[in-house]
């Protein structure tokens, strides 16, 4: 898939802009604070229905304006579709349209898929447990479109169970109603997360190994909440849905007193952990900055390869990736991402850093406008 054209109105510091992109590599260059990352954010918004910088969509509406609109023509498997998002600050509304017809946000997710590599992604992957889970969930959404509805169902039942616990209205019976759905959706969520990890593992190892050599063993690992009795297993690998349901059922039973005491659900996929292991040690605790960057790039490269096995070519959003590449090995991973054949959007303050790239178009960004563009 690739974006043919993008149109922006009152989006952050971009007043009004229409840009035709190349199918290959698009470089946004310019001084700090000009709007390069804002352009990536707009593309990300069209693919994920949210920002990667903030949880409140209204922040993306230009200062002094009420509404913001972003649209793109996306070519995918022989068809061009128009995807649009409108954000209204006063009404607190975000609307999505495909070919002019209003659709639910979840319906538009498969029309454009993006993979982001940025400082924000780095912080998410090596941040707190919640952040790491968010990193994993984003990857699973791209990989398995049905995951989102299971995840939303799980979130809904978790909310209901928590409010029953908080209000102390359960008396055993009410809680049981939620427990059944909690176990069903919770098991599905964990099952899809594990399926993604299993599918991507070999690719991840391969991408990292090509640059770092075979002796550097890397793994993705999923740790289910410690309250769940996993027998002698340190981490969960592949389990059947029935086994996961059993684990969660047991887990709920064991944490029942604690849940009542605290007034919320203390166990389940919303409390699990995900991390990258380098030489059997958690990367976020033990890896060097350079190794951490390389692991992030290798994971993204593996995601590209995995999506390609499903005939999906995501668009790549690479925010200032080149600028702090201190190591040739990391640089090599960056080149490989660019050479993956996917349409890419690269930001940089120093365009000569990307001189080596062929088949690209350079867009100079000044104060939220494209002031020059050149095919190279
Ligand atoms: N809602 C908004 N309305 C208007 N301007 C905004 C809004 N949100 C952010 N900005 C402006 O957008 C600019 C930042 O844009 P952006 O992050 O895209 O810069 P950049 O070109 O990527 O810079 P850098 O090279 O430093 O990363 C800032 O000048 C900021 O004030
Ligand atoms: Mg930026």
General description of the model:
The chain has 10 helices and 15 strands. The protein has a 6-stranded antiparallel beta sheet with strand order 2-1-4-5-6-7. Strands 8-12-13-3-14-15 form a 6-stranded mixed beta sheet, sandwiched between helices. A 3-stranded antiparallel beta sheet has the order 9-10-11. With 376 residues, it is of the alpha/beta class. The longest helix is centred in the middle third of the chain and has 40 residues. It is globular. The two termini are 22 Å apart. The structure holds adenosine-5'-triphosphate and magnesium ion. The site of adenosine-5'-triphosphate (ATP) has 16 residues, from helix 1.
Report a brief summary of the structure.
This protein has 376 residues and is an alpha/beta fold. Helices cover 42% and strands 25% of the residues. The protein has helices spanning 36-48, 105-108, 119-125, 129-143, 147-167, 173-212, 241-262, 283-286, 289-309, 328-338; strands spanning 2-11, 14-20, 25-29, 67-76, 79-88, 93-98, 101-103, 114-117, 218-223, 273-278, 281-282, 315-319, 344-348, 360-366, 369-375.
